[in-house]
Amino acid sequence: MDRYDVVISGAGPAGAQAAFRCASAGLSTVLLERDVLPRAKCCAGGVLGRAQARAELQLPDDLVEQRIKSFAVVWAGNRKLFPLSGEVAAIVRRERLDHFLVMRAEKAGAEVLEGTRSLGAREVGDGVVVTTDRGEVSARALIVAEGCTSRLASSLFGPYPGRRMAMGMALECEFGSSPGDVMEVHFIDTPVDRLSSRVVFPRNGWMFPHQRGGNIGVVAQAASAADLRDTIEHIVKDCGQRYNGTVSRSDIAAHPLPLYPRDCVHSRRTLLIGDAAGFVNPITGEGMSYAFTSANLAASSVEGLLRDGKGLNSYAVGCRKKILNDLSAAMFLGPKLHWLLGKVNLSTFFDQVGRNDDIMRACAGIASGESDWRDLFARMAPRTMPFLLLNHRLIRGRA
Ligand SMILES: Cc1cc2nc3c(=O)[nH]c(=O)nc-3n(C[C@H](O)[C@H](O)[C@H](O)COP(=O)(O)OP(=O)(O)OC[C@H]3O[C@@H](n4cnc5c(N)ncnc54)[C@H](O)[C@@H]3O)c2cc1C
Hints:
Blueprint: E1 3-9, H1 13-24, E2 29-32, E3 46-48, H2 49-54, E4 64-68, E5 70-75, E6 78-83, E7 89-92, H3 94-107, E8 111-113, E9 118-124, E10 127-132, E11 135-144, H4 151-157, E12 165-175, E13 182-187, E14 204-209, E15 213-220, H5 225-242, E16 246-249, E17 253-258, E18 270-272, H6 288-308, H7 313-340, H8 346-355, H9 357-368, H10 373-390
Parallel strand pairs: 1-2, 1-11, 2-8, 5-13, 11-18
Antiparallel strand pairs: 3-7, 4-7, 5-6, 9-10, 10-11, 12-15, 12-16, 12-17, 13-14, 14-15
Helix pairs in contact: 1-3, 1-6, 6-7, 9-10
Bound molecules: flavin-adenine dinucleotide (FAD).
Flavin-adenine dinucleotide is lined by residues 9-15, 32-35, 41-46, 51, 117-118, 145-147, 150-151, 168, 170, 217, 219, 255, 257, 274-276, 280, 285-288, 291.
């Protein structure tokens, strides 16, 4: 049996990026993927500027459906457009992006074994043995990048609690006319009735534009499949009216996403990255920038382990600094935002936000990676509280 420096299980954005980094650092790297590529993945396909920067990605034009230069908030028959000063995200089809990332890893020297499903793993002496449906793979370190339903993460680190997950559904539509470069967020169950101290992910949806149509979807923490499907139909109808009808549509796909990071993300020879580690933003559902960041951190820690005999604790430290601080701010801010929006007149509130350069810059900064959720919180806290208390025009019922 060949022995690699590192085996990576799962070839989504996290696994492909880790393979790219490990192979580029000269480590003998094998990437296992249960499906044959390109494979479909239920996702809205929004790659924020910060995600592109963390993956050192120059996305070629033929991979990009739309480059986003504005976003709109849609609620109860209203729509508010926020033009932005530059490109904040690119919309892609995930099957194409993921394949592109795997090919990049392959070019850097990683061996890719498609159609190979990992079934179990054990740490033995100074290495790890992964059992797959095509035999065993041995390596000095293992990176688990199998997404939120990871079998290896569950067997090595314990199952991820279902109550900590949200469920997403999405489809692709072609419209009668192009939706342009506007990314739409549809508030369905925001505002929420009660202020919660825990993460809340109320049912909300989106339309992320493609060249001739868009990806339409919804995510929620506690909604039935029927409610999620109804929401998608509602957004399809709304967008169809705005963009000259719906010409065609795909089937609806569904996939869970984790709302809380796992408590433990590495052992002596194994690291969890991306969704397998629970790294998804609990306000937006965005996971790719955390997938790329954790992949970069894991690759450096594996290099440190194999070259200098350092332990993998540097991975936990890196995750705390570069991922968990940002996620904690979002976990704190999210429930307040969903509740706050119920206390204000939304039209007036969004008008004020749109005119507030500081807050708009902070939002664009999160997308580009120049700032994070902690900065937005720091800028909003001193403004929103007096803003709510003093501006009587905003208090619902007096608008
Ligand atoms: C509806 C929805 C919309 C979303 N929209 C966005 C968005 O617009 N922007 C954004 O940044 N994030 C979005 N996300 C989150 C994003 O999809 C994830 O954060 C991201 O895919 C995580 O990447 P990953 O590589 O960790 O896992 P995944 O993308 O899930 O990849 C895991 C890979 O591992 C493979 N695998 C699984 N088990 C095994 C096994 N046993 N053996 C071998 N291979 C295995 C899978 O086939 C897959 O290829 C969305 C999520 C959902 C559900």
